[in-house]
Amino acid sequence: MIPGLTEPYCIGDDTSEHCYQIIDTKISWKKASDICKHYGGNLVIIESAEEQKFISDLMKNIKFNVSGLWLGSDKLYPEEQRSWANGDKFSYLNWEPGEPNSHVIDENCVEIHTNDSRWNDVRCTELNGYICENSRT
Ligand SMILES: [Ca+2]
Ligand SMILES: [Ca+2]
């Protein structure tokens, strides 16, 4: 388990289980991704409204120091090649209104806001907390 804010929260059953852990240490996307991988998972990939709801419900119970948590994509641009870090296309979206806007050049990474659980594109060198996902199927 990663030293962090929360214990892993899991959903699923013996054959298919997803566990999430939220960490509110401020680090870059790459460092966050490396830590998740070191512990056998990856930065969270949100594939459905159900998964989004599970995560936003978790977040509601936490008092955050950070305003954003990294999600598992550093491949937002160019837009026609947009995908999660594992290459999967986005199957569900929860952007803030007006996002993604690539406001600063190369807003290639995705954060989820801790106040409303909506997504924003942001530079990968910004410092955020993060959510790791470990899947077992
Ligand atoms: Ca997932
Ligand atoms: Ca943005």
UniProtKB/TrEMBL annotation:
Gene3D superfamilies: Mannose-Binding Protein A, subunit A (3.10.100.10). The keyword Cytoplasm does not apply. CDD domains: CLECT. Keywords: Disulfide bond. SUPFAM superfamilies: C-type lectin-like (SSF56436). The keyword Disulfide bond applies. Residues 15-133 form the C-type lectin domain. This is C-type lectin domain-containing protein. InterPro entries: C-type_lectin-like, C-type_lectin-like/link_sf, C-type_lectin/snaclec_domain, C-type_lectin_CS, CTDL_fold.
